């Protein structure tokens, strides 16, 4: 008989209510916790917001106090599986081998290179461990070395708002140039003159990517030339370079349309030319190969097709089909080499790598040898190469880096993620199941569990999903997950609509006015697992984050009886308010995903599923909700308001906890190990509810 964890008798915080009307189209919609957004608005209740979040954190700490030792054990266990002194597989680019390495006890890493040979003397380009000293949060991104290998640009964010300062380091002297650029997206691209840097400038308030600017080394960044200004707030923009290094490329894309501009990289002072003006509901992506551009597009092709066009005739009228649209295969992307083309495809929910010799048109697929897995092209910066670097993993196979010789078809395992302390994949089993949704569609489910785990109604099971933006949740290994599996949990991924696992239509059927398919699929997967006796509602847990947190909020409202507990990470739960407020970061970028509530039909549909709007006086499951004060993607006040309203309405005595990381944002803690404390809290929450680990908890 499992002994239940004894939850302390503590009184949860009660948030103040202040009437605030947020409805439209004649709809009365009072948001009594609207004041919680005052921290970033610098409104009159800014201090009260911090007080409330701290009170919720204190309540969570009190309620979970009996699990403190267990959390410490879980943290040590998960940290102990990570090889602290480690090194990435070196990547060759423009005469140098680049890699990162980590030292024992350090949270970050060192970015290094060796010239010509791995036997050469190491250059430490950035010691991020030292750079991060004194910062509760630190993110260094966008490492970008100039064509002559003498300079490196990179971005730094010390707040977790994804607003980066660009720095430029002289790799010969080790000194930093006086040039400092803020705010940016963190990435940049060099012109071939080694003196010109293109970057994405962001709006400090909305955080949107608005302008591509050109910076000349040694000049005042406040006078940088705007080479592109995106007027449509629903588009994301960025700047990069074709793999051939011949063209600078500006990309502007929304959910359903895109546009590219190109410039000869040898002429960075020149004018960018539009590749093909944006067309409604047409997405395209480009890269350069020899005397042509290659284009991946959904124009007249639901699952995308591959086109080509001469370098001097880029308009759509000149595009010629190379690989046609196929109803059963999604063409996800390409990787271009001088003599080869690598096409990433998705068939029956699984990724495939298709290799084509562009001179002979001979083709083959890389053989992976497992029924359920994830495989994708890795870092392949060298255009003049016949080797493909790819990454392979599955629910039981740790992340593995391979080099594949495209001519001989030989593959070489360069590195497999080491699980310190030992790990035997033969001790675990995986399954691929299909749940029948209420409209007859078959939804894939990937499962993993330890072979000693007995499948029954008493078996605890964690069901995870995302289901938005066409992001596919592929089966991949996690060493932290072993702490669940080794204690008898089954872990399952529901590949629900809104993702793209089963092709583009899978995504189309889980967005806009079909968004409820996402929630129904998840519920139907849960009911299938219960029906097949993999678990029962008394032992079933659900987890999702960000847009997957919206999923958690929706299923908590729709079927609260199905779950023993729900974990909602940085959840997007107040859909209507957020989508009505264009001053909130990223709102306008999302109209093609959720709809624009200024249109009554979109407003009504969003409100019909928005978790915040559909809270009722009824019983809810046990819930743990996490957020970050500096979150730029889903602002902290959404989960905070949601928890406050849940507290005011729920009629049960189940546990409801809110944990706010006061020093981080959407991705949580920045260090190599600190994020494990957040996972330990989540695991301890489930084990406390399950009761099975109570002897360890004490």
Query: Any idea what the shape is?
Result: globular
Q: Strand order, biggest sheet? A: 29-30-32-31-33-34-35-36
Q: Can you count the helices?
A: 14
Task: Just name the CATH architecture of the domain at 422-657.
Answer: 3-Layer(aba) Sandwich
The beta-strand count equals: 36
> What is the C-alpha radius of gyration, as a whole number of Å?
26 Å
Task: Specify the structural class.
Answer: alpha+beta
Low-confidence stretches: 692-698
Helix content: 10-25%
Which CATH top level class of the domain at 422-657 fits?
Alpha Beta
Q: Average pLDDT, to the nearest integer? A: 93
Termini separation: 16 Å
The percent range for strand residues is 25-35%
**The CATH superfamily title of the domain at 422-657:** Alpha/Beta hydrolase fold, catalytic domain
- Looking at the structure, the CATH topology of the domain at 422-657 is Rossmann fold
Largest sheet: 8 strands, mixed
Keywords:
single chain, 698 residues, alpha+beta, Rossmann fold, eight-stranded mixed sheet, 36 strands, 18% helix, 33% strand, disordered C terminus
Describe this structure in words.
Residues 477-687 form the Peptidase S9 prolyl oligopeptidase catalytic domain. GO terms for molecular function: serine-type endopeptidase activity. With 698 residues, this protein is α+β, with helices and mostly antiparallel strands. Among the domains are: 328-417; 422-657, Rossmann fold. The strands form 7 sheets. The chain has an 8-stranded mixed sheet with strand order 29-30-32-31-33-34-35-36, with helices on both faces. Helix 3 (68-80) packs across helix 13 (675-690) and helix 7 packs across helix 8. The chain is globular.
